[in-house]
Amino acid sequence: MPPVMITPRIRGFICTTAHPEGCAANVRSLMDLARKNTSGKGLGTVLVIGSSTGFGLSSLVTAMFGYGADAVGVCFERAASADKTGTAGFYNLVEVHRQAAAAGRRLTTINGDAFSHSIKNQAVAAIKAIGKPIDLVIYSLASPKRKDPDSDTVWASTLKPLDRDYAARTVDFDSDTLKDVILQAATPEEKIGTIKVMGGEDWKLWIEALSAAGVLAPTCRTVAYSYIGSQLTKAIYRGGTIGAAKDHLEATARELHQRLSATGGGAWVSVNKALVTQASSAIPLVPLYIALLYKVMKARGTHEECGEQIVRLFRDHLAPGKTPVLDEQHRIRVDDWELDPAVQSEVTRLWEQVNNDNLTTIGDYAGYKLAFLRLFGFEVPGVDYAEPVELEAALV
Q1: What are the two backbone dihedrals, phi and then psi, of residue 47, each rounded to the nearest 5 degrees?
Q2: Residues 107, 64 contacting (CB under 8 angstroms)
Q3: What is the CATH number of domain 10-144+191-278+304-336?
Q4: Which residues are catalytic?
């Protein structure tokens, strides 16, 4: 396949193209951040489920290049084809593999349906090939659907409020305008489906499979990622179908912790900050909230992007020798700067003022769109986008 020029093609909240060099530059930035802000040693082997983008990618890079870990990653990504670029997650991992080889770190990526038994079995085999048990399992899976591993049932998640319809404002990226949407209340079946996809059931199956195979270190820790958010997003997020799934995830953490702590390990949910990710961009109301939040937190000097958030999570809670600091519901909280009352008061003030005339100035809408494009390797400093690039690559 000859080199070609790549430009972003945005359709709603999805970009259908990705830039290999931009994605590689993003990964190198995450590596630099990890190396400058961590100890450089201490972890043996790490499994990251959902390793190709967002919090999962940052966790993989931080563990490997910040704490010297070997790793197994699980993802569901697509390589380039005759008429399509590869996905951003695929190009991200191509660079992680290249950098791991240069640093003498072992990395195995398993590309497939993480909900299936076969992928779990492949992960077990990869861990056994490394020859060291798993010290840390990161569960960072974001998927709209889940096929039941023991049947043909396919569960779908929804982004809906519970009990009653909800009127919300969201951002139309194509026109850069606000629009009103009516979100219908979820049915009982939709609530169940969302819990099946985004709750803790699959996380538990992973830990059970790894434990049964004897590949968990006695002191293995595991963390799943979650979000709570503010009162502004409560109806659609924590008070909606996703929130019901997150409640299930937290209950699963407490169950797993009881089991793992018996040998010195542990299981927790980490509640993270609102950030621009492929998943969050799909949630009505949330992009507008994030644009306003970025404006306030950047002005206060407390804004963190994904890599910075995960570096702080590891440094303060997950690094070897660290004991996680928990809230009263057994959760790690790195959303503390977001939920600072002064921050939320200012975001609420801006929320009440924002309209189509001031959308691009009252918040950090430009910063939001820039962060969105960088997810796919575009608008990354130092990358020449006028230069044709090779689309084909391999995870080696």
Answers
A1: -110, 125
A2: yes
A3: 3.40.50.720
A4: 237
